Amino acid sequence: MIHRAGTELVNWYLLEEGGRVTIVDAGCPAYRRQLEGALRSIGRTLGDVEAVVLTHAHIDHVGFAQTLQDERGTPVHAHVQELPQARTGKAASTEGSYVGALLRHATARRIVFHLARNGALRPPKVAHVSTFEGGARLDVPGHPVAVATPGHSLGHCALYVPEEGAVFVGDALCGWSTITGEAGPILPPPQFSNSMERARASLAAIDGLDAQTLYYGHGDPWVGGAAAAVAHARAIDGAGGGR
Hints:
CATH topology: Metallo-beta-lactamase, Chain A
Number of strands: 12
Distance between the termini: 35 Å
CATH architecture: 4-Layer Sandwich
Mean pLDDT: 94
Oligomer: single chain
Structural class: alpha/beta
Helix content: 25-40%
Low-confidence stretches: none
Number of helices: 8
Shape: globular
Protein backbone atom coordinates (compact mmCIF):
# COMPACT_ATOMS: atom_id res chain seq x y z
CA MET A 1 0.00 0.00 0.00
CA ILE A 2 1.17 3.50 -0.83
CA HIS A 3 0.13 6.60 1.13
CA ARG A 4 0.93 10.14 -0.03
CA ALA A 5 1.85 12.79 2.54
CA GLY A 6 3.35 16.28 2.52
CA THR A 7 1.86 19.52 1.22
CA GLU A 8 0.52 20.85 -2.06
CA LEU A 9 4.11 21.71 -3.03
CA VAL A 10 6.24 18.79 -1.82
CA ASN A 11 5.32 15.11 -1.46
CA TRP A 12 6.71 12.27 0.61
CA TYR A 13 5.32 8.76 0.89
CA LEU A 14 4.71 5.72 3.05
CA LEU A 15 5.18 2.32 1.41
CA GLU A 16 3.59 -0.37 3.59
CA GLU A 17 3.98 -4.12 3.30
CA GLY A 18 2.70 -6.58 5.90
CA GLY A 19 2.51 -3.95 8.63
CA ARG A 20 6.07 -2.75 8.00
CA VAL A 21 6.75 0.69 6.54
CA THR A 22 9.33 2.35 4.30
CA ILE A 23 9.37 6.14 4.05
CA VAL A 24 10.09 7.11 0.45
CA ASP A 25 11.73 10.53 0.53
CA ALA A 26 11.27 12.67 3.63
CA GLY A 27 9.99 16.00 2.35
CA CYS A 28 11.29 19.13 4.04
CA PRO A 29 12.93 19.04 7.48
CA ALA A 30 9.90 20.60 9.21
CA TYR A 31 7.62 17.88 7.81
CA ARG A 32 8.71 15.66 10.72
CA ARG A 33 5.59 16.89 12.53
CA GLN A 34 3.44 15.19 9.86
CA LEU A 35 4.85 11.71 10.44
CA GLU A 36 2.74 10.34 13.30
CA GLY A 37 -0.49 11.52 11.68
CA ALA A 38 0.44 9.98 8.34
CA LEU A 39 1.22 6.68 10.04
CA ARG A 40 -2.05 6.74 12.00
CA SER A 41 -3.96 7.19 8.76
CA ILE A 42 -2.78 3.73 7.64
CA GLY A 43 -3.04 2.15 11.08
CA ARG A 44 0.67 2.15 11.77
CA THR A 45 3.04 3.73 14.32
CA LEU A 46 6.66 4.89 14.45
CA GLY A 47 7.60 1.41 15.61
CA ASP A 48 6.55 0.04 12.22
CA VAL A 49 8.96 2.26 10.26
CA GLU A 50 11.99 0.24 9.18
CA ALA A 51 13.71 2.43 6.59
CA VAL A 52 13.90 5.69 4.70
CA VAL A 53 14.78 5.43 1.01
CA LEU A 54 15.69 8.55 -0.97
CA THR A 55 15.14 8.99 -4.69
CA HIS A 56 17.86 11.64 -4.41
CA ALA A 57 19.49 13.85 -1.80
CA HIS A 58 18.07 17.30 -2.53
CA ILE A 59 16.85 19.36 0.43
CA ASP A 60 13.16 18.67 -0.14
CA HIS A 61 13.71 14.89 -0.22
CA VAL A 62 16.26 14.37 2.57
CA GLY A 63 13.96 16.37 4.85
CA PHE A 64 13.55 14.79 8.28
CA ALA A 65 15.62 11.67 7.53
CA GLN A 66 18.41 12.60 9.95
CA THR A 67 15.94 13.58 12.67
CA LEU A 68 14.37 10.13 12.45
CA GLN A 69 17.78 8.50 12.45
CA ASP A 70 18.71 10.46 15.58
CA GLU A 71 15.44 9.57 17.30
CA ARG A 72 15.18 5.90 16.38
CA GLY A 73 18.29 4.84 14.49
CA THR A 74 16.25 4.41 11.31
CA PRO A 75 18.42 3.31 8.35
CA VAL A 76 18.56 5.75 5.43
CA HIS A 77 19.25 4.43 1.92
CA ALA A 78 20.37 6.34 -1.19
CA HIS A 79 22.22 5.71 -4.45
CA VAL A 80 25.97 5.74 -3.97
CA GLN A 81 26.36 8.88 -6.11
CA GLU A 82 23.98 10.76 -3.81
CA LEU A 83 26.22 10.09 -0.82
CA PRO A 84 28.29 13.34 -0.98
CA GLN A 85 25.22 15.57 -0.90
CA ALA A 86 23.38 13.41 1.62
CA ARG A 87 26.29 13.67 4.04
CA THR A 88 27.20 17.33 3.51
CA GLY A 89 24.01 19.03 2.33
CA LYS A 90 25.97 20.61 -0.52
CA ALA A 91 24.29 20.25 -3.90
CA ALA A 92 26.10 19.50 -7.15
CA SER A 93 26.16 22.19 -9.82
CA THR A 94 23.06 22.89 -11.89
CA GLU A 95 22.66 23.83 -15.54
CA GLY A 96 20.82 27.07 -14.88
CA SER A 97 20.71 29.80 -12.26
CA TYR A 98 17.45 30.12 -10.36
CA VAL A 99 18.10 33.78 -9.47
CA GLY A 100 16.65 34.99 -12.76
CA ALA A 101 13.84 32.47 -12.48
CA LEU A 102 12.91 33.89 -9.08
CA LEU A 103 12.54 37.31 -10.65
CA ARG A 104 10.40 36.05 -13.53
CA HIS A 105 8.21 33.31 -12.05
CA ALA A 106 5.89 33.37 -9.04
CA THR A 107 6.00 29.56 -8.80
CA ALA A 108 9.77 29.57 -8.35
CA ARG A 109 9.47 32.17 -5.58
CA ARG A 110 6.72 30.17 -3.89
CA ILE A 111 8.81 27.00 -3.90
CA VAL A 112 11.95 28.68 -2.54
CA PHE A 113 10.05 30.53 0.19
CA HIS A 114 8.23 27.33 1.17
CA LEU A 115 11.51 25.44 1.48
CA ALA A 116 13.01 28.23 3.54
CA ARG A 117 10.03 28.28 5.92
CA ASN A 118 10.27 24.51 6.34
CA GLY A 119 13.88 24.14 7.34
CA ALA A 120 15.88 24.43 4.14
CA LEU A 121 17.94 27.44 5.26
CA ARG A 122 20.08 24.82 6.98
CA PRO A 123 20.35 22.03 4.38
CA PRO A 124 19.67 18.66 6.00
CA LYS A 125 22.44 16.09 6.22
CA VAL A 126 22.44 12.37 7.04
CA ALA A 127 25.29 10.98 9.10
CA HIS A 128 24.88 7.33 8.15
CA VAL A 129 23.68 6.33 4.68
CA SER A 130 23.44 2.82 3.27
CA THR A 131 24.12 2.95 -0.45
CA PHE A 132 22.74 1.03 -3.40
CA GLU A 133 23.30 0.88 -7.14
CA GLY A 134 20.82 1.11 -9.98
CA GLY A 135 19.04 -2.18 -10.56
CA ALA A 136 19.10 -3.22 -6.90
CA ARG A 137 15.95 -4.61 -5.29
CA LEU A 138 16.10 -3.09 -1.83
CA ASP A 139 15.66 -5.21 1.29
CA VAL A 140 13.14 -2.85 2.89
CA PRO A 141 9.34 -3.03 3.21
CA GLY A 142 7.79 -2.94 -0.26
CA HIS A 143 11.09 -4.07 -1.85
CA PRO A 144 11.33 -1.27 -4.44
CA VAL A 145 13.69 -1.68 -7.36
CA ALA A 146 16.13 1.18 -7.88
CA VAL A 147 15.92 2.42 -11.48
CA ALA A 148 18.83 4.72 -12.35
CA THR A 149 17.47 8.02 -13.69
CA PRO A 150 20.34 10.52 -13.38
CA GLY A 151 20.07 14.07 -14.63
CA HIS A 152 18.13 15.95 -12.00
CA SER A 153 20.93 14.84 -9.69
CA LEU A 154 24.01 12.67 -10.15
CA GLY A 155 22.57 9.50 -8.66
CA HIS A 156 18.84 10.07 -8.97
CA CYS A 157 16.86 6.81 -8.90
CA ALA A 158 13.21 6.11 -9.48
CA LEU A 159 11.86 3.40 -7.16
CA TYR A 160 9.73 0.81 -8.94
CA VAL A 161 7.27 -1.32 -6.99
CA PRO A 162 6.01 -3.97 -9.45
CA GLU A 163 3.52 -5.43 -6.95
CA GLU A 164 1.79 -2.04 -6.75
CA GLY A 165 2.05 -1.28 -10.47
CA ALA A 166 3.67 1.95 -9.39
CA VAL A 167 6.90 3.91 -9.48
CA PHE A 168 8.16 6.74 -7.29
CA VAL A 169 9.78 8.97 -9.89
CA GLY A 170 11.16 11.55 -7.46
CA ASP A 171 12.02 14.52 -9.64
CA ALA A 172 12.92 12.59 -12.80
CA LEU A 173 9.44 13.75 -13.83
CA CYS A 174 7.25 16.33 -12.12
CA GLY A 175 3.53 16.91 -12.00
CA TRP A 176 4.21 20.57 -12.68
CA SER A 177 7.27 22.72 -13.28
CA THR A 178 8.77 23.99 -10.05
CA ILE A 179 9.90 27.09 -11.94
CA THR A 180 7.01 28.08 -14.21
CA GLY A 181 4.11 26.08 -12.78
CA GLU A 182 3.40 24.53 -16.19
CA ALA A 183 1.40 21.30 -15.87
CA GLY A 184 3.11 17.98 -16.47
CA PRO A 185 4.19 15.27 -16.65
CA ILE A 186 7.22 17.45 -17.28
CA LEU A 187 10.98 17.21 -16.95
CA PRO A 188 12.54 18.96 -13.95
CA PRO A 189 13.77 22.47 -14.77
CA PRO A 190 17.45 23.08 -15.56
CA GLN A 191 17.67 25.61 -12.72
CA PHE A 192 17.39 22.73 -10.26
CA SER A 193 19.05 19.96 -12.32
CA ASN A 194 22.58 18.74 -12.85
CA SER A 195 22.27 17.69 -16.50
CA MET A 196 19.23 18.06 -18.74
CA GLU A 197 20.85 15.83 -21.37
CA ARG A 198 21.03 12.99 -18.86
CA ALA A 199 17.53 13.76 -17.54
CA ARG A 200 16.14 13.40 -21.07
CA ALA A 201 18.04 10.14 -21.60
CA SER A 202 16.70 8.79 -18.31
CA LEU A 203 13.13 9.01 -19.57
CA ALA A 204 13.78 5.78 -21.48
CA ALA A 205 14.21 3.92 -18.20
CA ILE A 206 10.81 5.12 -16.97
CA ASP A 207 9.18 4.48 -20.34
CA GLY A 208 10.05 0.80 -20.10
CA LEU A 209 8.41 0.20 -16.71
CA ASP A 210 5.14 -1.68 -16.39
CA ALA A 211 3.71 0.95 -14.04
CA GLN A 212 0.27 2.52 -14.20
CA THR A 213 0.76 5.05 -11.39
CA LEU A 214 3.63 7.52 -11.09
CA TYR A 215 4.23 9.21 -7.74
CA TYR A 216 6.02 12.54 -8.08
CA GLY A 217 8.04 14.63 -5.67
CA HIS A 218 5.87 17.53 -6.81
CA GLY A 219 2.31 17.13 -8.03
CA ASP A 220 -0.65 14.77 -7.92
CA PRO A 221 -0.01 11.15 -8.93
CA TRP A 222 -0.26 10.31 -12.62
CA VAL A 223 -2.48 7.29 -13.28
CA GLY A 224 -2.20 7.13 -17.07
CA GLY A 225 0.79 4.80 -17.25
CA ALA A 226 4.54 5.32 -17.52
CA ALA A 227 4.71 5.36 -21.33
CA ALA A 228 2.06 8.07 -21.64
CA ALA A 229 3.76 10.17 -18.97
CA VAL A 230 7.08 10.00 -20.79
CA ALA A 231 5.44 10.84 -24.13
CA HIS A 232 3.77 13.87 -22.56
CA ALA A 233 7.03 15.10 -21.04
CA ARG A 234 8.91 14.66 -24.32
CA ALA A 235 6.22 16.60 -26.19
CA ILE A 236 6.46 19.51 -23.74
CA ASP A 237 10.25 19.45 -23.89
CA GLY A 238 10.21 19.42 -27.68
CA ALA A 239 7.86 22.41 -27.70
CA GLY A 240 10.18 24.34 -25.40
CA GLY A 241 7.92 24.14 -22.34
CA GLY A 242 8.92 24.20 -18.70
CA ARG A 243 11.76 26.68 -19.24
